[in-house]
Amino acid sequence: MLKIGNTEFGDKPVFLAPMEDVTDPSFRYMCKKFGADLMFSEFISSDGLIRDARKSLQKLELFDYERPVGIQIYGHIPEAMEKAADMVNSVKPDLLDLNYGCPVRKIVARGAGSGMMQNLPLMEEITKRVVNISNIPVTAKTRLGWDESYKNVLEVAKLLQNCGIHALTIHGRTRAQMYKGEADWTLIGEVKNNPDIKIPIIGNGDITSGEIAYHRFEQYGVDAIMIGRAAIGKPWIFKEVKHYLKTKETLPPPGVIERVEFAREHLHKSVEFKEGMRGIYEMRRHFALYFKSIPNFRETRLRLLTAQNVEEIEQVLDFIETEFGGVELVTQNL
After folding, report:
1. What CATH number labels 2-247?
2. How far is CA 265 from CA 177, 281, 309, 314, in A?
3. Catalytic residue numbers?
4. Model pLDDT for residues 142-190, shown as the tens digit of each residue
């Protein structure tokens, strides 16, 4: 039974990872629909928050149906992170997460994200300041280390635990790997099973099915797992994973007609939350993956991804339902 702060998550919970330009309110709505036990906002720049940047402030918007939900912030200036954490207090998420894992160059170049793994004194100062000012439980997310020759995640875990965080998520890749290659869970397991580590450890990386999730829990003893990219265009993965964890049976994937229904619901939530064309533009990555496994779909996909308004998209979705509704999907893993 996992408990972080006052929030209980039950046994073997499955979380949605924070992802920039992905985990917006519409996507979180879909993942919650399929059973995600905890979700996070897109990661938010501390500098953007304290400058009242509109895009950063919009990311603070949460809804009661999402709970439990966390907000993740990043930055490299202690004063800015402290002020941003105080702003997060005002919207009262269930958790405040510190991003020490993002590998993107523009963030790492400033020493933020996974760049912080090369500056542990700064990581310690920021974490202590945030923990001290936060009214809600503080967690963190990091990676195995900087590169293959410098994997310091155990040292990082002990440092963060001593700073007072309530849980740590570890992505099973180094910063140098970005998102390439396979995630290595060996070190995640070593951190979890180290006698000096008392806080919950959440494993992240390459969870693409219920069976894999089950084996990660069994083999490495993590307190929860976190799913990121595998949920894009496939929010029902949470339902599949939780069903397998409970029954050891694999659910059949949704058919074309079900995917059309999900895509339509996601679309309307996206345009509800986003202004103008933005809600449509940001749906395109999801549309491409919702229907990835339909054969002979190239021309229809192009129509779907170039439609300029909701009415055009609805027409394409109707066409998909009519023309491809009975088609057998190419693979049963998408």
Report:
1. 3.20.20.70
2. 35, 16, 15, 11
3. 102
4. 999 999 888 999 999 999 999 999 999 999 999 999 999 899 999 999 9
